[in-house]
Amino acid sequence: MESESKGRMGRDRERRMLRNGFLRLAAQLTGLAAAGWLIFTQVFLVTQASGNSMSPAVRDGDLLLGFRMQGTYAKNDVVIYEYGGRRQIGRILGRAGDVIAIDGSGTVEVNGTAQSGAILYPTYAGEGISYPYTVPEECVFILGDYRTQAEDSRVFGAIPLEDMEAKVITLLRRRAL
What we know:
Blueprint: H1 2-43, E1 44-48, E2 63-67, E3 78-83, E4 86-95, E5 99-102, E6 108-110, E7 113-114, E8 133-134, E9 139-143, H2 153-156, E10 159-160, E11 164-172
Antiparallel strand pairs: 1-2, 2-11, 3-4, 3-11, 4-9, 5-6, 5-8, 6-7, 9-10
């Protein structure tokens, strides 16, 4: 009898330990899932590029990792923003107070200085705004790299900083997956 009750107590103790182990594992997994959710909804943004407005730097289908907690944005930062209910990608050309001018020959000037660089496509003014254009406070002026195909600030004007979702910190080419 005594050995039977010791055996039963041992099995009960083993079950309690096993149950406690499962509860600890479930709590750790829940904590890990909550931390992952917090990191990827509040700190980082993972999205897929749609369209070729930033070609060749960002191509259709590329995966982008963005940092959501960017305090300020600098000229030439590649950013993810929302406009018209859609997530867009573009490059910052000007910040609050900058004067943007685009002439008929495709020359872009910021504060009177001609902009050059690795942009392969000419930049023509859109029909949405008139130039010279002063970027309003709390806004940025964004252009796509594929200037002849991009819908950007030339069409819809400056983007409020509150519509900025993230600064792109890296990308993965879809062909590499």
